[in-house]
Specification:
6-stranded mixed β-sheet; 29 strands; 18% strand; binds guanine; 6-stranded parallel β-sheet; TIM Barrel
């Protein structure tokens, strides 16, 4: 086995900080900085029983690339030999593990055995003395079968212990601050508020585990599990990782990660192995019941189930534990890749079919997404939709549940609030539309398959709103090249005109288009020529730019019209807009990958001048408006020279950000006087920007400060 280099400690100033590298809605790829290396999340902390090491921690580091593990400080504390060795040599030496070591406190033992013999302060001190990277305070386990009063007391007692625990861990050890509250959403939200704000000498908890959930997982009460998670997340500081205490079944990873879990821990890999059960991403299988492996692994490769059954008990349990750990790791890798490519929700959707209990939870989640409630769960759901980039690169498979995916819900919400009928028509007439045209039965790209028909209808009646029917509902023709609609994949039949008039009318309600005559058209053979065709095409191109500026940048369509005054453009060979200029100056380019827009610095300057909202400051409340103008991030003076030259905006250098900022869509970077410093694409939300102290906040496209200044 190749020995892997020991980790480098994080920089002193980064200790305990969490940064977000990528995100897909609430799911995030993060990095937690510890004295024994930087931990990439989402990740699993394998549970090590110091008395019974099924897989050696060193092998976990070298072979399985486990960056951090978890063991129980109470088990060590109770065992005299382990205890004195841990104090004298340190926990890393005791376990022979060079990565980060997390310890639990004995709370779980108190749940199982009724009590523990150690006090809250003593156990935190002991963890610190062992040199633990992330310790856990002694929280009070809130069982789901407790009364509300008992759960309330568990939340309060846990919160009361938090400051003394943080005082002891001090500047030497990071600390877990568990969230309790049983299945009561309001108690979870309260616990999150109390634990999230607890601090001693300016230092709070580094990680927030969601505690008290093991009984729910044992009873497969997944809907309540995810309800608890969402309720807790509504009040947790967004700059701290969230840990699902005791959750380690790969089947639960995609959904938990899609809702914002960063860390898992579990002894399942070893316990199931001892019980001759193997893990797969879709459930658990008994070794005694199979002839062939349902899921392959390095550990089992070249062996048959019968050969493994014939092994002696210890060897068998080791090899099955290795398989289980591999499956766990590979499912986490799959989830991380899904976050990077924007498909974590689809993965959760797919995995939801693994069990009827999980399916029940997923269907409940979809209901929440469609109709968020007024409480903490609804707050989290709305925040999740708003933080999801509405556009996607590349294709997306059509599925029955596509309309519940957060990115689709987000763009539908943007269309409902920010799309407007054109203010003037191609023939320069003004006034309300006379009719709405729905193009049906044609696949994308509609500028190719339906343009002639659209022009024909516009020649006939200039005051026509043109929409395209898609399996996910109608969209304005102006956003025909926006993903996912233009890249939906599925059999030919998905574009068949199958909707009844009543269904179409229903789907036009959000657009405010139900009071005018509706025309349905299947594009056929037209050959429109004549002097007006060019004029119509120019008008349509301009509508497309104005609509995208409104939807994605919150620019009022009347400002969008001013921005595109005297518009000219260059087109690609596939007839797409490539460069858009106003008065001869290049202001933006549509993004060919997803149909969004990339501003130029000239365009960013114009958008900034048009934005008359107050300069954003963290903590101040903004007025609600449908078109608050292009979202801005205001940076502190120290950062201006760097960002002005094109360097990225880093967390910790931001004094305010507009709350309607959408990760993945354009934003401006301004200074405290409102001058444009740069423009780019935000990675984090305005709330995250107000908390995070590490990592990139805005990937800058171009600095706007002249080099010689
Ligand atoms: N392990 C599993 N659940 C819990 C919990 O609620 N608290 C602690 N400290 N450890 C756990």
């Amino acid at each position: 086995m190749v020995e892997r280099k020991n980790p480098d400690p994080c920089r002193d100033q980064d200790w305990g900080l969490f940064e977000i590298k990528h995100r897909d809605g609430a799911a995030r790829i993060g990095r937690l900085h510890s004295k024994h290396g930087i931990i990439t999340t989402p990740m699993l902390l394998p549970v090590i029983n110091p008395n019974l090491r099924t897989i050696e921690p060193r092998e976990m580091w070298d072979k399985y690339r486990i960056e951090a593990l978890i063991t129980n400080s109470y088990v060590i504390w109770k065992h005299e030999e382990l205890r004195s060795k841990a104090i004298s040599d340190g926990i890393h030496s005791l376990l022979d593990f060079p990565g980060a070591v997390v310890t639990d406190s004995g709370t779980f033992q108190s749940y199982v055995y009724g009590d523990v013999e150690v006090g809250p302060e003593e156990i935190v001190n002991f963890q610190k003395e062992m040199g633990v990277d992330i310790g856990t305070m002694l929280d009070v386990f809130g069982r789901p079968d407790m009364t509300r009063e008992q759960l309330e007391r568990a939340v309060e007692e846990t919160a009361d212990r938090s400051t003394p625990s943080l005082t002891i861990s001090g500047e030497e050890m990071l600390l877990n601050g568990p969230i309790q509250g049983g299945t009561h959403a309001d108690l979870r939200a309260k616990s999150a508020l109390l634990m999230g704000s607890a601090e001693s000498s300016g230092r709070g908890f580094a990680v927030h585990p969601i505690g008290g959930i093991v009984p729910l997982m044992e009873q497969q009460r997944y809907q309540e599990l995810f309800e608890i998670l969402l309720a807790s997340k509504s009040n947790l500081p967004p700059d701290r990782p969230v840990h699902f205490f005791g959750c380690g079944h790969p089947m639960l990873f995609p959904m938990a990660i899609a809702l914002g879990v960063d860390m898992f821990d579990s002894a399942a890999y070893a316990i199931f192995a001892r019980d001759d059960r193997i893990l797969t991403p879709e459930g658990t299988v008994k070794l005694s019941e199979i002839l062939e492996w349902p899921f392959n692994s390095h550990a089992l490769f070249g062996l048959t189930p019968q050969e493994v059954r014939d092994m002696d008990a210890d060897d068998r349990s080791t090899i099955l534990a290795k398989h289980n750990l591999e499956v766990t790791q590979s499912e986490l890798a799959k989830c991380r890749e899904a976050i990077r490519n924007g498909s974590i929700w689809q993965l959760a959707e797919k995995r939801s079919h693994a069990s009827p209990y999980l399916r029940e939870a997923f269907l409940w989640l979809q209901e929440q997404l469609e109709d968020p409630d007024d409480g903490p769960v609804g707050d989290s759901v709305l925040r999740m939709i708003a933080s999801t980039n509405p556009l996607r690169d590349g294709g997306e498979e059509l599925g029955d549940e596509i309309e519940f995916r957060p990115h689709v819900l987000h763009i539908q919400a943007l269309l409902a609030t920010r799309w407007r009928v054109p203010g003037s028509w191609w023939d320069s007439s003004t006034g309300p539309p006379e009719r709405v045209l729905i193009i049906e039965g044609a696949p994308p790209p509609w500028r190719v398959t339906a343009m002639e028909s659209v022009i024909e209808h516009l020649l006939e009646e200039p005051k026509t709103v043109v929409m395209v029917s898609t399996p996910v509902g109608p969209i304005p023709f102006s956003i025909e090249d926006v993903s996912p609609w233009c890249h939906l994949t599925g059999p030919e039949g998905i574009w068949d005109p199958i909707f009844e008039d009543i269904e179409i009318l229903d789907s036009l309600v959000d657009f405010g288009l139900t009071e005018i005559p509706l025309i349905r058209a299947i594009p056929g053979e037209f050959t429109s020529v004549g002097k007006d065709v060019g004029r119509i095409r120019e008008w349509m191109d301009r509508c497309s730019v104005v609509d995208k500026l409104a939807l994605l940048c919150a620019i009022n369509p009347s400002d969008g019209c001013k921005m595109t005054d005297e518009m000219t453009s260059r087109k690609s060979r596939t007839d797409r807009l490539v460069n858009v200029s106003s008065h001869g100056k290049h202001i933006l380019s549509p993004r060919l990958t997803d149909g969004g827009i990339s501003l130029t610095t000239t365009g960013a300057k114009i958008a900034n001048e048009m934005n008359s909202s107050p300069i954003p400051v963290f903590g101040s409340t903004e007025k609600d408006s449908e078109f608050p103008g292009i979202p801005r991030v205001c940076i502190i003076d120290d950062a201006v020279p760097f960002v002005g030259k094109g360097r990225n905006v880093m967390h910790g250098y931001i004094s305010g950000a507009d709350s309607h900022l959408i990760p993945g869509q354009p934003c401006l970077v301004i200074d405290s006087t409102g001058s444009l410093i740069a423009h780019g694409i935000p990675i984090t939300t305005h709330l995250e920007m107000s908390y995070l102290r590490k990592g990139i906040a805005v990937r800058v496209r171009e600095g706007a400060v002249k080099q010689d200044q």
